[in-house]
Amino acid sequence: MSIDRETAAKVAKLARIRVTEDALPALAEEFNTILGFIEQLNEVDVEGIEPMTSVTPMRLKRREDVVTDGNQQAKILSNAPDAREGFFAVPKVVE
Amino acid sequence: MADLNTLTIAEARDALRKGDVTALELTEACLSQIEGAGALNAFVHHTPDIAREQARAADTRIKAGDAPAMCGIPLGIKDLFCTKGVPSQAASRILEGFKPEYESTVTQNLFDAGAIMLGKLNMDEFAMGSSNETSVYGNAVNPWRRGNDDAALTPGGSSGGSASAVAADLCLAATGTDTGGSIRQPAAFTGITGIKPTYGRCSRWGVVAFASSLDQAGPMTKSVRDAAIMLSAMCSHDPKDSTSADFPVPDFEAALTGDIKGKVIGIPKEYRMEGMPAEIEQLWADGTAMLKAAGAEIRDISLPHTKYALPAYYVIAPAEASSNLARYDGVRYGHRAKLAQGDGITEMYEKTRAEGFGHEVQRRVMVGTYVLSAGFYDAYYNRARRVRALIKRDFDQAFDAGVDAILTPATPSAAFGLGEMKDADPVQMYLNDVFTVTVNLAGLPGISVPAGIDTQGLPLGLQLIGRPWEEGDLLNTAYALETAAGFVAKPGKWW
């Protein structure tokens, strides 16, 4: 499996990271190095082995479905790059 | 008494309780050392006011007579921990200016026990790196040098600032975190002790997430006893972390008897890597002999899937990172890129993340995105999780056969020069974690203990891997190894 610059551009797009056109060939090459290393996993016989979901055999805890927190609007907005009138502000989303 | 900043936690605790020293004196000693250690670039946010206030409170508590062991102990805190009202950036530009409105559970536990925060410590960006060279703050520097050569060496990573600060006696101990070796490798590179507990021992709440199924916090200290004391204070069951273990936290220090007679120590043949430096091989053999002399039974064992741990890790960790780091979108906190006329929300995301994430983080997020993308999920991600199950099974089988702990080298080399790996491909850097990453994949406790000095005068570490939840037993074996190795060397002060 080899990654070309089109695939690299597509991955960057999916990851929402802007990559300039001229940086794509080097990025594709790095992907190929890493994926080449990962290819070793194909040597392993994984027949009948379930993918690990939890490293310790423990059931996730449940709790009552009740509100335990809230009324912290000012705290939540305190780190926002742009907050107005009690909301996070972002560029126009809908055309 | 020795310079106060050079004390161990245990020494300081005893001196505090006897009234020979105050927490404020300890704190001032550390603060003045930090001030003079700019060249190490270990502390990146200084909190002297908080430290003095906490020290005064600790002194009051100690006088009252029932202070816990960590009361009055000045610590450095890795920048990955969210600390209320104090910059917590994970060494990333994307979290520039972020001041959490809350405290991580681990730091809260330490503060509840009376510990003191001197400041925040340098690290690799989002804990992704093995040399502290991916930090937005610039490189942290190892206080150790090769003989008289003044070339700057890496303190390792990702907890490079923590390792540098403890080794240089800028603080009594520090917090670290470990996703693939980020406590144990820097501990080995700087001649200190670092333990990653069993997955679930320390709450991950308030610790900036890298790879959630692998991340664990742990102490980085000047001795095994200190690691035991500090680990007891860091651990707790926490309902805010759904993977936090609901087990009582033992007094780990009480487990340090030094008696390991009859314990079975496994030596895994797969850790004998091709091209391993002779010095590392010798150190490993010496450590084996020390444990044998202390009364342990040495047994050759096999962990056949060891070779596949790193490739499995470099699927699973980036996959989880790509998901965890999706939250950095320029909306709720941290950096937002300046937008051009007509830019919409997608441009905001893309420009913000391109400016805010460094190169290594971008690369891992994109690798993670790729291995999780439609058509590859099964071939990469699911296969890696199946291999992970096999890696864990290897350990389970060794423990079921009666092995109590496993001895390996901590790293494949001593500390290397900053910039030396610049032209290497990313996989070369990843090989630093070859001996440590298996432990994260299997969720086990692992500890790095300084055990020797190489011909260039640099410290080398050995790793012990224990059974899940048996950190006390593991620390006791490490204590026996520490006693036998008698490592006392310190870096000469040049900074």
Automatic annotation (TrEMBL), chain A:
Enzyme class: ligase
Catalyzed reactions per annotation: L-glutamyl-tRNA(Gln) + L-glutamine + ATP + H2O = L-glutaminyl-tRNA(Gln) + L-glutamate + ADP + phosphate + H(+); L-aspartyl-tRNA(Asn) + L-glutamine + ATP + H2O = L-asparaginyl-tRNA(Asn) + L-glutamate + ADP + phosphate + 2 H(+)
Keyword tags: ATP-binding, Ligase, Nucleotide-binding, Protein biosynthesis, Transferase
Domain of life, per lineage: Bacteria
InterPro entries for this protein: Asp/Glu-ADT_sf_sub_c, GatC
Gene3D superfamilies, per database record: Glu-tRNAGln amidotransferase C subunit, N-terminal domain
GO MF annotations in UniProt: asparaginyl-tRNA synthase (glutamine-hydrolyzing) activity; ATP binding; glutaminyl-tRNA synthase (glutamine-hydrolyzing) activity; transferase activity
Protein role: Allows the formation of correctly charged Asn-tRNA(Asn) or Gln-tRNA(Gln) through the transamidation of misacylated Asp-tRNA(Asn) or Glu-tRNA(Gln) in organisms which lack either or both of asparaginyl-tRNA or glutaminyl-tRNA synthetases. The reaction takes place in the presence of glutamine and ATP through an activated phospho-Asp-tRNA(Asn) or phospho-Glu-tRNA(Gln).
Subunit structure: Heterotrimer of A, B and C subunits.
Protein name: Aspartyl/glutamyl-tRNA(Asn/Gln) amidotransferase subunit C
Species the sequence originates in: Roseovarius marisflavi
Phylogenetic placement of the source organism: Bacteria, Pseudomonadati, Pseudomonadota, Alphaproteobacteria, Rhodobacterales
UniProtKB/TrEMBL annotation, chain B:
Domain Amidase intervals: 25-475
EC number(s) on file: 6.3.5.7
Similarity comment: Belongs to the amidase family. GatA subfamily.
Any single biological process term in GO: translation
Record PROSITE patterns: AMIDASES
Name listed for the protein in its UniProt record: Glutamyl-tRNA(Gln) amidotransferase subunit A
Record keyword Secreted present: no
InterPro entries, alphabetized: Amidase (IPR000120), Amidase_CS (IPR020556), Amidase_dom (IPR023631), AS_sf (IPR036928), GatA (IPR004412)
Presence of keyword Membrane: no
GO CC annotations, alphabetized: glutamyl-tRNA(Gln) amidotransferase complex
Lineage: Bacteria, Pseudomonadati, Pseudomonadota, Alphaproteobacteria, Rhodobacterales
A Pfam family this chain is assigned to: Amidase
Catalytic activity: L-glutamyl-tRNA(Gln) + L-glutamine + ATP + H2O = L-glutaminyl-tRNA(Gln) + L-glutamate + ADP + phosphate + H(+)
Active site: K78 (charge relay system), S158 (charge relay system), S182 (acyl-ester intermediate)
Enzyme class: ligase
Domain of life: Bacteria
Keywords, alphabetical: ATP-binding, Ligase, Nucleotide-binding, Protein biosynthesis, Transferase
GO molecular function terms noted in the UniProt entry: ATP binding; glutaminyl-tRNA synthase (glutamine-hydrolyzing) activity; transferase activity
The protein's role, per its UniProt record: Allows the formation of correctly charged Gln-tRNA(Gln) through the transamidation of misacylated Glu-tRNA(Gln) in organisms which lack glutaminyl-tRNA synthetase. The reaction takes place in the presence of glutamine and ATP through an activated gamma-phospho-Glu-tRNA(Gln).
Subunit record text: Heterotrimer of A, B and C subunits.
